[in-house]
Design brief:
With about 300 residues, this protein is mainly alpha-helical. About 85% of the residues lie in helices and about 0% in strands. The chain is flat and about 90 Å long.
């Protein structure tokens, strides 16, 4: 069994080394940039100096993950790439990583963490069953860590969108009723406010400006964000656009409805609070109270009965 693990670790190490060397050896842009630096020795700031002034993440990590991602994307099933792309869109991006780079980081972690775990166990003199079991666990952990972090960012972004939706709708309503068009109201929101929802509306505005139909941009927003209230709002706007209903009336009704829903969610959380408080109350508060109240009586009974 040990030789099987050794072969698997060797093959994994070879794949990681191959990906890294392939990424580093295929930098034609770096060669072109260095030639430009030689051709322009008296320039005030060469391309090499400009590249060296960038952070380490942009100079080294991103090119490696980019090349590795493009190499591995050919072997990745289309369904997995589509799922990763949708998750990244819902999270508003994951740093500066694209879909290929994110998949490359995921695969490198899934392959590298078992190798490191196996090597540490081998140096520590672990048994054969641990040499097989722990690297398998490390493989699952390495493959799950990027998606868990991405899922956490998605939850935080959706919570931010849910929280900011009534305020943003109020500003949209006021802007439309003041005489601005819907596109102008979106631009005003992007100018005056910040947050995940404002970023999504800014993206919708950019899509409309480059020629995407408003209905498609709003529909994509509702699907991409994954927030039911926002999906209901975009569906109402699309229906109003199809039927020719005034957008100001729709915004006013939706704004009032979103505020009412937020008030109901706050009341729901307030009603759940006493139930959630029972667990720490029973586990950590009642036992000390019982000890304080009953301990003197128990001690007196023991002393009295023991004296007899």
């Amino acid at each position: 069994m040990i030789w099987v693990v050794t072969v698997v670790a060797a093959v994994t190490s070879f794949l990681i080394s191959y990906l890294v060397l392939t990424a580093l050896s295929g930098k034609r842009k770096m060669v072109v940039m260095r030639l430009k630096g030689i051709d322009q020795p008296f320039a005030a700031r060469s391309d090499i100096e400009e590249a060296l002034s960038q952070p380490f993440w942009q100079r080294v990590i991103l090119p490696i993950t980019g090349e590795a991602g493009r190499t591995l994307s050919r072997l990745t099933p289309h369904a997995i790439r589509k799922l990763a792309s949708e998750k990244l869109a819902a999270a508003g991006g994951f740093g500066r990583l694209g879909t290929d780079e994110f998949l490359a980081v995921n695969i490198i972690l899934a392959m590298g963490l078992p190798v490191v775990t196996w090597f540490l166990l081998l140096v520590g003199g672990a048994r054969a069953n641990k040499l097989v079991g722990f690297p398998l666990i490390a493989f699952g952990v390495g493959a799950a860590i990027p998606y868990l972090l991405l899922q956490r960012k998605i939850r935080e972004r959706r919570a931010s969108i849910q929280k900011d939706l009534p305020d943003v709708l109020d500003l949209l309503t006021v802007s439309v009723e003041a005489g601005l068009g819907f596109d102008g109201a979106l631009a005003k929101v992007a100018e005056k406010m910040k947050g995940a929802l404002v970023e999504e509306f800014s993206r919708v505005l950019q899509e409309i400006r480059i020629g995407v139909p408003r209905r498609e941009a709003l529909y994509s927003l509702g699907v991409r964000a994954g927030v039911p209230d926002l999906a209901l709002f975009t569906a109402s706007l699309i229906q109003a656009d199809q039927l020719g209903v005034s957008i100001g009336n729709v915004l006013r009704v939706q704004s009032a409805a979103m505020r009412e829903k937020r008030r109901q969610r706050a009341q729901e959380k307030a009603m759940k609070a006493p139930v959630k408080m029972l667990i720490p109350l029973v586990m950590f508060i009642f036992p000390p109270i019982f000890i304080i109240l009953l301990a003197p009586a128990v001690i007196r009974m023991i002393t009295t009965l023991g004296g007899r």
